[in-house]
Each structure stands twice: as C-alpha cells, then as structure tokens.
Design brief:
Blueprint: E1 3-9, E2 18-24, E3 31-40, H1 43-49, E4 66-73, E5 85-88, E6 91-93, H2 99-102, E7 114-115, E8 134-138, E9 143-144, H3 151-154, H4 160-170, E10 178-182, H5 186-197, E11 201-206, H6 212-217, E12 222-225, H7 230-234, E13 239-244, H8 252-256, E14 259-267, H9 280-283, E15 288-291, H10 297-310, E16 316-319, H11 324-332, E17 339-343
The chain binds NADP nicotinamide-adenine-dinucleotide phosphate (NAP) and zinc ion.
C-alpha cells in the first residue's frame, strides 16, 4: 500500500518551502504508518535548508518533531496498534548491532543513524520528514506519547525535549545543582522546564530581558541579559552546568568563567561556524566543555514519560502550512515563543 502524501518541501538550498507530494514506502513487516497531526519547527530544519552544516539533499521535507496517530501497522508489529498516539524524532533507523546501538545510543551508530530527513535509508532511498500528512517508520524508532500530553505540545519533545533532557541527565542535574540555560528559544525553554522539574535552580541567559516574565513562569529562578556586561561579573563562578542552546557563535571563554570549579558547559546549539576558546579557561578550575546530540530511543521514551509525570509540554504557536516560511524568518530573528508547530491537517488542504 504505497501512500502518496501531501508535504512541504524546500526545492533547493535556501529556497522558500512550497507544497508538494511525496511517496511513502509500502509497509514492511516492522513498519508503522503514522498520520501526522503536528510537526514542530526546529532551528536544525533551517540550518539544513540553508546548508549551514554542509551539502544537503533536495528537495528537502524537513521535520523531526513528529506527533501523530498510528494508521496501519506491518504484519510483524506487536508494539503498536491502529489508533495509538505516537511520536518520531530525529532518527528512523540504525544498524541495531554496533556497541552504541546495543547500548541504546542509536544516534552514535557506527554505520551512521538514518536521519528522519536529509538522510538516506539502508535501502538507498532518501528520507523525508514530518512536514507531511503521513510517514512510514520502523517500529523500533517510534515512541509512545503518553495520555495527558496533547499531540501538539508533545511534538517538540521529540527533538527539543530529548536534546535538553539527555545532557541534563548526563551531568546529574537535580536538587542542589545550579544550572544556566543560554538561549531561551525552542530548546532553551524546554531546558528550563526540564531542569526545574528535576529540582535544579535554573538561570536563563538571554540576549535581552524581553522574555523574563515567561522564563520565571516556566521555572527559572533568575533571568539575566547577556547584553549587560555586569551579568558576567555578577554570575562569575556560579554554575555547576551551563547548557548552551544557541544557534549562533558565542564567546565561549566568557561563559566558562561562570562555571564553578569542576563545572561543565554542554553545547547542544549547533551553529555552522566553529566555536573558539582559550584552554586556560578550562585549566583554571578543571572545567569541562562538552557536547550532546539528541538522545537514544529508550531515553526519548523515558523523557516523554517524565514529561507526562510532571505535566510538561512545549509552549507552542500552532501555524498552518502556508505560514512556514514566515515562521522560519521569525525563528531566525529569535522571535519564537517558544516553538512553532505545523498543524499537519493544513498540508495539502
Ligand atoms: P531557536 O528556537 O532559534 O533558539 C535559539 C535561541 O538562541 C534563540 O531563541 C535566542 O535566545 C538565542 N540566540 C539566537 N541567536 C543568538 C545570538 N547571535 N547570540 C546569542 N543568542 C542567540 O533554536 P532551537 O530550535 O532551540 O535550536 C537551537 C540550536 O540547537 C540550533 O543550532 C539547532 O540546530 C541546535 N540543535 C541541536 C541538537 C543536538 O542534538 N545537539 C538538536 C536540536 C537542535 P534568546 O532570544 O533568549 O537570546
Ligand atoms: Zn531538532
């Protein structure tokens, strides 16, 4: 049962997205056909459409924050049934056999994980993402969205949620820990909610104080503007963990100075340009500079269950398909509160 599905695609690098149709493969025994309900817009979608990270595959149907309902399952699928509420994030396949896949960190598969879009499957076919009415995904890469989280506010959890949850867990964030989140956008606002729910004391470091009220409402104790030089004096040596969610280059040394001895700055932001730092910023204080990429499938399910338990979803602005290009511009101008989510029923309607 091959499915032709309406989608939104960037026809070539940097081009505006436009309506199109794509074909989804016949269901294999381990496949799930999902009717997409909502697809979040991640800044990574914009980086890839613009080829900020290198050569990409076009036409590109972005979207790796997918929430929807199971419409059909392959003959061998036992975990999901028609009608189940499910989500798909940044990966749709991996080898399943290497040490990293076996350890549940499929994002580091030695054969390379298959990205949800702008990727090539092990069958040689290009992948197309969630800005579409339906998607076919191997069951092992589908997560269950718990009852109690709306599909619209759940969609961004599949990337922004797991990408912030995983490093917070890796760096043992919890009660008694002081955490700073740089950038209060899609990832940043999830980082604030999750770190606060884990019991940490959270500070937002934003370009301005425009969103301060929201930051405090979503769980931050403090909110500072990085445009104010005094911020860096006031906060010197304060944090155990700094989570950098910024999509642009930052002066790393200035942020390292805000860490306590032994503290860690973890980068999840992925600008195309290299970040620079002075090694003495690390030596003076045994500080650590780290990175973190999304999270494995089991950890993504753990994050979704954690969000359900703590009543956490993303703060969203729902848009129709024809508003995607405007939404991209607004994300690039840091004018997002705090995640755009495409109502997939408007794609091809
Ligand atoms: P976003 O919604 O645009 O948020 C980024 C925030 O960074 C902005 O809201 C803004 O916050 C701040 N910012 C932007 N430009 C800045 C500048 N020049 N100087 C200082 N601050 C600036 O983007 P997102 O979707 O959260 O994604 C953020 C980054 O994470 C992107 O690079 C994305 O590709 C990357 N990412 C990485 C992973 C991973 O696995 N590691 C996964 C997903 C996304 P304020 O307005 O508060 O200053
Ligand atoms: Zn993303």
């Amino acid at each position: 049962m091959t499915t032709t599905t309406p989608a939104i695609a960037a026809p070539a690098v940097g081009q505006p997205l436009a309506p199109t149709t794509i074909v989804r493969r016949d269901l294999r025994p381990d496949d799930v056909l999902i009717d997409v309900a909502f697809a979040g817009i991640c800044h990574s979608d914009i980086h890839q459409v613009k080829e900020d990270w290198g050569t990409a595959i076009f036409p590109m149907v972005p979207g790796h924050e997918i929430a929807g309902v199971v419409a059909a399952v392959g003959s061998g699928v036992t975990k999901y049934q028609v009608g189940d509420r499910v989500g798909v994030g940044c990966m749709v396949d991996s080898c399943g056999e290497c040490e990293y896949c076996v350890a549940g960190t499929e994002q580091f598969c030695v054969k390379g994980n298959v990205q949800t879009y702008n990727g090539v499957g092990f069958d040689g076919e290009n992948t197309y993402g969630g800005y579409s009415r339906s998607i076919v995904v191997k069951d092992a890469f589908v997560c269950r969205i718990p009852e109690g989280i709306g599909l619209d506010v759940a969609a961004p959890l599949l990337c922004a949620g797991i990408t912030t949850y995983s490093p917070l867990r890796q760096w043992n964030v919890g009660p008694g820990k002081k955490v700073a989140v740089i950038g209060f956008g899609g990832l940043g606002h999830m980082g604030v909610k999750l770190a606060a729910a884990m019991g940490a004391e959270v500070t937002v470091l934003s370009q301005s104080l425009k969103k301060q009220e929201d930051g405090l409402k979503l769980g931050a104790k403090d909110y500072y503007a990085i445009s104010d030089e005094a911020t860096f004096d006031t906060l010197r040596g304060r944090f155990d963990v700094i989570l950098n969610t910024v999509s642009a280059k930052l002066p790393v040394d200035a942020y390292l100075s805000l860490l306590r001895v032994g503290g860690a700055m973890v980068n999840v932001g992925a600008p195309g340009e290299p970040l620079e730092y002075n090694v003495f910023s690390l030596l003076g204080g045994n500080r650590k500079l780290a990175g973190s990429m999304i999270g494995g499938i089991a950890e993504t399910q753990e994050m979704l269950d954690f969000c359900a338990e703590h009543g956490i979803g993303a703060e969203i602005e729902t848009i129709t398909a024809d508003q995607v290009n405007t939404a991209y511009e607004r994300v690039e101008n840091s004018d997002v509160r705090y995640r755009f989510v495409i109502d997939a029923s408007t794609i091809g309607a």
